[in-house]
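Lab manual, section 2.4: Encoding a predicted structure.

Procedure: take the sequence of the chain (159 residues), apply the prediction step described in section 2.3, and record the output as structure tokens. A sample record is shown.
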Amino acid sequence: MKVQIYSRKAIEELLQGEFPKNTAVISFYDPPSKRTGEIFKPVDYKCKAERVFTVPIYDIDIEILEDYSLTFDTYFPEAGNLAEYIHQAYKDGLDIICQCEYGQSRSAACAAAILEHYYKDGISVFADYRYYPNQLVFNKLLTALNEVKETGNISFVGK
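Recorded output:
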């Protein structure tokens, strides 16, 4: 399985041409901003990608969760479902594209968690100077992926 990291700009350019076959997409985007009122939309993959999983999630650190009225338990509630999606894509032999706004933090964390879980090589993303993997996304997704492996399903969806 090939795991790639894309920014919104790079993926929108890729979508103008022929999209890679046998590819599942994980697309992170910002939820509506409480601070600016700005509304963000996910990238449109219609008629291009075989499977797409979108995640509206703030790119924040644990220190400021409270500023967003979040806790560790309420941040990234989609992690369990995303882990199941990734596991199924892996079983089906699909490559995975992880995409976020700048292609540096949430998508990098997602790719690192996938690589760590399946190949014990998540460090390769952390060591690459182009990326700044979001620690919360990485840890919550890796925990969820490990739970899928151990039980065959997620027992804590919604946490």
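Check your result against the sample. Residues 13 and 128 are 23 Å apart (CA to CA).
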